[in-house]
Amino acid sequence: MTPTRKLMLQLSGIAIVLLMWEIAGRIMGENLLAAPSIVAVTYVELLLDGEMLIELLNSLRQMILGFGAACLVGMPLGALMGRSRLIDALVHPWISMIVVTSVAALVPIFMMLFGTGFEFRVAIVFVATIGYVVLTAYHGARGIDPKILDVARSFGTGRIDTYRKVILPALFPYLITGARLGLVHAIRAMVVAEMFVIVGYGGLIFQTGLDLSTAPILGYLVTIMVVSIGANVALQRVGDRVAPWYAARMAR
Amino acid sequence: MQGAGAAEAHPESGAARAASPGVRLLGNPYLLYPLSFALGLVVWEIIASQLPEVVFAAPSAVLTHIWEATLSGVPPSLFAASIQHMIVGLLLALAVAIPLGFLMGRNDTAFQMFDPVVNAIFSIPSVAFVPFLIIWFGIFFEARVALVFVMCVFDILVTVAAGARNIEPKVMDAARSFGARGRLMFFRVMMPASLPFLMTALRIGTVRAVNAMITAELFFATVNLGEYMEDASAVFDAPAMLAVVFLLALFGLACQEGIKFLEGRLLPWHVRGAR
What we know:
The structure holds two protein chains of two kinds. Chain A is mostly helical.
C-alpha cells in the first residue's frame, strides 16, 4: 500500500467518524451530544478562557511526579525480578495484585491516608502506574539473550560493566515501552482520582457534566486525548533517539 | 497500538534465565508463593502498625473482618449483585469488539481507515465518559453496564485487531495450497489460529471488567460493593474498606489466572513460556 493511499484512507476514516458524529449530534441535540461543529466553536472559547489549560497543567504536574516516581522504583525492580528468580517469586504475586486492583476502589482508602491534596494524587498515580512499568521491565530482563551475556562473560566483562554495557542497552526498549504503557495508566488514574474528589482537570469534567452541557465536556476530552497521544509520541521519539539500534526491532 | 496487553505480550521469553542448583531449590513455587504471601502480609502488618487504625488497617484486622462479614453472608450476596452488570457489559463488549476486531485485522483498508480513530478514542480515559453515560443512561443498572462496556470494549478491540492482523500468512498460504477454502478454511485454519489472541482478549477484557464493575458502583449511584465501601468510609471503618479492595483484587487475579489455566488446557499447541 502506498503512503498516499494509506494517508487518504486514514483521513477518510476520520472524516467518516466526524460526519457520523455530526449527524448524531444534530439528531440528539446539544443536551445529549454536541456535534463537532459546535464543539469546535466551544473549544476556541475554552482555549481563550484559559481555565482548562491552567487546570490541565496543574494536574499534569502532579501526574508527572507520580509517574516519574513509579518509573524510578519500578524499572530497577522489574529488571531485578527478571534476573533473579527469588526476587521474582517474592514480588511477582503482589505486583500482579496491584495491576488487577481497580484504581477507583483505592481512591476512598487513599483519601483517608493522604487527604485529597497533592500527596493523594501523586500516590494514586504511582500505584496505578508502577505495576505496568515493573512487568514490562521484567519481561525485558527475562528475555535478554543468554548468548550475549555469555559473550560478555567470555571477554571477561565484570559485573558492573555487564550491567552497564550489556543488560541496560538490551533492556532499554522495554523501559521505553513500559514508560509509554505506564503513562496511559497514569493519565487514566489521574482522571479517576480527580473526578472522584472533584478537583483539577477531572473535577472540571465531572462538574461540567452536572451542568448538562456536552460541548465543553467533549472539548475537555479532546484535550486529554491530545495530551495522551502527544506524550506517547514524545516518549517514542526519545526512545528512538537514545537507542536507535532497537528502533527497527521494537516496531511497536 | 498502546494496548493494555503489551505488558503481557512477551510470554515466550522465559527460557533465558539460567538457574543454579541453589536457586532451583529456592525456586520451588510451592515453597515460594506461600512465602511471598506471608512476607507481604508481614510488611503490610508492620506498615499498618505505624499508622492509626482509622486510616489504614492491618491484614489481621482485614482478614478478621472478611471472616466475620462472610459468616453474616453480606459480601457474597453483594458480589453476586455486582457481577451482574459486569457480565452483561463484558458480553456486550465481546459481541461488538470481536467482529469489529476481525474486520480491522483481516481487511487492510478497514484497518488503515479506523486504526487512528480507535487509537484516539482509546487514549481517552474511559472514566471521563461518565458524565455522558449519566446523561444518556441515568445512574442505575444501565449506566453501570454502559461503563463496563466502554471500559473494556477498546481493550478487546485493539487486542483482537492486532492478533487477527498477525495471523501467520504462511499458515493461511499452506492451507490454501492444499485446497482449503470457505468453511473449511474458517473452521480448521482461521479459528485455531485465532483462539490464542481471542483468549488473550478475553483475559484482558475480563480484568478490565472487574475493574469497571467497582468503578461503576462508586461513580454512579453507589450500590452493592460500592455502597459497602462508601458506608465504611463514612464511619472510618478502614478494615471494611480494605477488605473490599482485597477481595476485588483476589477476584480479578482469580479471573485472570483462571483464563490463563483454560488457555493452557484448551490450546496446548499454543505453548506459553513456563512461569
